[in-house]
Write a structure and sequence with these properties.
about 450 residues, single chain, Growth Hormone, Chain: A, globular, mainly alpha, about 0% strand, Lysosomal dipeptide transporter MFSD1
């Protein structure tokens, strides 16, 4: 019997050696362990969010047209952003849990991509039918998939690149996502104009056709999700990832055990982003009214945050990878953003200066903040942690988007800017507390890159 068991183990070892030998003969582009293959995966990973980000800011890029064609005021217009954010108060968290526990990363990503595509089609159909309530339904469905897709994208990044250029990868993902926003800001208005010239009149039909054309970018992202799922499944087989799993399973009750540092990261995320996205959503008219810009000039400066983010994010991510010190970089980003809003609120200096600073600081914060989640929670909780982070972020965005629209209608842009400055002061306080807590507990959030690498080797 012992001889038979020994013979069987020898056969198993031979089979493993054959598989290893076979994988060694793979070309670099097809070998999951090789840098070239990981770069190929990163390309599809980056384009995964292109369609979602392109369509997210369709209302901002077409603010004047949407308000005129659908006969809205500013508060009603901002409902298009609020209805995107409302479902994500809890669905991002649920989506992250489903990624970790139910669907798995591959199937979950495809499902969320489908929600994004279907939501954009409903949104466009609402404009075609001249039903604003249907447009809100479309944004709601779009939101179900949009933020959960971002959770999936973050989880993919950590699974493939943790310990290897993670900050750079987050920067590249942000860069490609913001490329989608930039293209939208500068192209979708032109598309609307071309359709208007072809049909001979503006109106809700022209708006609907424009939004339906935008849905093609969501179809592109769905294709990337399918290809990425295939490549991830193939890598799992070749690298035998299933054999190396710990068997730990995420439970919803694990949320109560999240470390204090993670909750501070959540607060920074919410307080910071509510001063970015609602401002961009309302920024076009702001620059027209305060600085007497033309519509074209206002559209250009309103998109500069995303334009700068596209090339700056990977460069800043590379810088954070090489230096470490994530908390200090986040602190710098928050302070710079605060200065930018103060310039826009209290001076008539050339707004291009403030907006360029805003673009750089926004890129820096995303590169330094989001990877920190992977340093404070175990791998089997990553989807849930990122989902919870985006759920809280969307709760803030949903409430603040409606508050911003109402504040603008009743008080004007100066009061709105003061409100954004107050939010950034809250983010600044949370960053300082995070630095002190991490220093006191000897955490790794603010370690240098070399010290962090030594800790990873020791583990």
């Amino acid at each position: 019997m012992a001889v038979r068991e020994e013979h069987r183990s020898i056969l198993d070892e031979d089979e493993e050696e054959d598989e290893d030998e076979g994988s060694r003969h793979l070309s670099p582009l097809c070998d999951p362990r090789h840098l070239l293959h990981r770069i190929l995966v990163l390309v599809f990973m980056c384009f995964l969010g292109f369609g979602s980000y392109f369509c997210y800011d369709n209302p901002a890029a077409l603010q004047t047209q949407v308000i005129q064609d659908m006969s809205l005021n500013t508060a009603s217009f901002m409902q298009l952003y609020a209805w995107y954010s409302w479902p994500n108060m809890f669905l991002c968290f649920l989506g992250g849990f489903l990624l970790d526990r139910v669907f798995g990363i591959r199937l979950g990503t495809v499902i969320f991509s489908l929600f994004v595509l279907i939501g954009q089609i409903i949104f466009a159909a609402g404009a075609l039918a001249n039903h604003f309530w249907l447009m809100n339904v479309g944004r709601f469905v779009f939101g179900i998939g949009g933020e959960s897709l971002a959770v999936a994208q973050n989880t993919y990044a950590v699974n493939w690149f943790k310990g290897k250029e993670l900050n750079l990868v987050f920067g590249l993902q942000l860069s490609m996502a913001r490329l989608g926003s930039t293209v939208n800001m500068n192209v979708i208005g032109w598309v609307y104009g071309r359709i208007q010239s072809l049909t001979g009149s503006a109106g809700h039909s022209t708006l609907g056709i424009t939004l339906m054309i935008a849905a093609s970018t969501c179809l592109f992202s769905l294709t990337c999700a399918l290809i990425l799922g295939f490549l991830d499944r193939r890598a799992e087989k070749i690298l035998k990832k299933e054999q190396g799993r710990t068997g730990e399973v995420i439970k919803l009750t694990d949320v109560k055990d999240f470390p204090f540092s993670l909750w501070l990261i959540f607060i920074i995320c919410v307080a910071y982003y509510v001063a970015i996205f609602p401002f961009i959503g309302l920024g076009q008219v702001f620059f027209i009214e305060k600085f007497s810009f033309t519509t074209v000039q206002a559209r250009a400066i309103n998109s500069i945050v995303y334009i700068i983010s596209a090339p700056a994010s990977p460069l800043l991510g590379f810088l954070v990878d090489r230096t470490g010190r994530n908390v200090l970089w986040v602190l710098l980003a928050v302070v710079t953003t605060l200065l930018s809003h103060m310039m826009l609120a209290f001076t008539f200096w050339n707004p291009w200066i403030a907006m360029c600073l805003l673009g750089l600081s926004y890129s820096l914060l995303a590169c330094a903040l989001w990877p920190m989640v992977a340093f404070v929670v175990p791998e089997h909780q990553l989807g849930t942690a990122y989902g919870f982070m985006q759920s809280i972020q969307n709760l803030g965005l949903a409430v603040m988007s409606m508050a911003a629209g109402s504040l603008l209608d009743n008080k004007g842009y100066l009061f709105l800017e003061v409100f954004f400055i107050a939010c950034l002061c809250m983010a600044l306080l949370a960053v300082v507390l995070l630095y002190l807590y991490d220093y006191h507990t000897e955490g790794e959030l603010n370690l240098s890159a070399s010290t962090r690498a030594e800790r990873l080797k020791a583990e």
